[in-house]
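Name: Ribonuclease D
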Amino acid sequence: MKIHPLVTDTDTLARMIGRLKAHDIVCVDTEFMRENTYYPELCLIQLASSEDAFAIDPLADGLDLAPFLELLGDDSILKVLHAGGQDIEIFMNLTGKVPFPLFDTQIAAMAMGMGEQVSYANLVAHFTGQQIDKGARFTDWARRPLSDRQIHYAIGDVTYLSQLFPKMLNKLRKTGRGEWLDEEMARLSDPSNYAVNPDTAWLRLKLPNRKPDVLGRLKALARWRELEAQDKNVPRGRIVKDETLADLAAAPPPTQADLARVRGLSPTWAGNAIGQRLLAAIAGAEPLPEAEMPAKENRPGLSTDASLIADLLKLLLKVRAKESGVAPRLIARSDEMEALAAGVRDGLPILQGWRRGLFGEDALALVEGRLGFSVSGGKMRMRQLAGSPQPDQPQPEESFDPEPFSSDEASAPAPAPAPEADAAAAPARRRAPRRRAAG
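Structure predicted for Ribonuclease D:
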C-alpha cells in the first residue's frame, strides 16, 4: 500500500478520489474536535483502499471537499468504518444524508464474540498481531500545522482497517453470521439516529417528576436550549446545565428578575436577551399531553413475577451469548426480554429469524415453564422440566460455567407470567453513539 502526502488542494483531492473509485471498498475515518462546539469540527479525513492511503486536511485554505462528498454518496462503494457513529454524524451534517452502504468493524466484532464495544487497538492486535500507537489520540487536531506523528497516527487508522475488513468478512462467511449483522448495519444507516430534533431533546434528561405541567415546561426549556446551542455552536451544557433545566421546570421563576436567584444561571440573565427568551419558553409551555407521557421507570407494566422472569431471561441470554460467541446486545435487548416476560409474543425480534433459533425458542420455553436452570458440581445447567410439553426438536441438557456456586444442586424454573401483565414494556431509550470527546 502506498501512503501519500497530506492532501491540501482540490486538484490533488480529485485525483486521489479518482484512484479510490476504482475500488469497491474504501476505508474511512475522521479526526474531529467538539469540546467547545455543538457540532463536531472536522479536522482531518483519512481514506484507504487496498492500494492507496492518504489524509485530507479539510481546514486547508481553498480546499473544496466536493470530490470526497461525491465518494460518500456513491452507492456502489462500500464504506468501512470502526465505531463510525460520530463520523457518520459529521457526514450527515455535511451532506444531509447518511453514506451507504456501510460496514462497521466494531458491530461486526459483536458477531464474533469480541464484546459489544471492542476497541480499535484490540481489534487490530487480534487480527494482525500489531500494536498500534495511540499516543496522538487526544491531540489538538484543529491546531496547524499537523505534525508528522499526527498524520502517521491518523493514516494508520485506515491502513489497518483495510487489513481488518477482509479477515473479518472471511470469518463471517465461514460462520454464516454475515446476515446476523444486517439489522445492526441498517440501524447504523438510519438518518434518524443523527438528526437532532429539538422537540425530543427533553427525552434525554432525568425527569424531575411526572406532573404534566412540569414535563411540559421541561420539554419547552430543552427545545429552547437546543436551539440556543445550535445557533451559537456551543455545547448545550454551556447554555444551561441539565440540573438547572429541571429546577426551572419544577419551580419556574415568575419574572425575569427572579432569574438572578436561580442557581446555575448568570445574574446578568435577569436583564438580557437570553433571559427574555428563556422566560418566553416557560410562558409558552403547555402541559404535556397524555400521549407523550414517558413510560414509568422500573420496567413498566411488569408484575413482580414478570420482573423475575425478565431477570431469568437475562441470565439465559448470558448463557447463550457465551456459548455462541456472540455479544449479548446483538442477540436481544432488555426491552424485548421484558416484553416477552410480560406476555407479548408478536413482533419481537428475538422470536424471529436467527435470533429465535439461538435464543428465542429457549426463552419461550423458560417463560412457559418448560425449561429451568439448575446448578450441579459448580456448573449451571438448563434442562427440560418433568411433565412439561416437549418442543418440536429435542433439547439436551446444557451446561454453562459462570463463577462457582456454593449449592450442589438447586433448580429454579421460571414462574408463569402474571395475567395482569399483558402489555409490553416500553422500549428502552437508544443509547447515544460513542463519542470520542465530550460535547
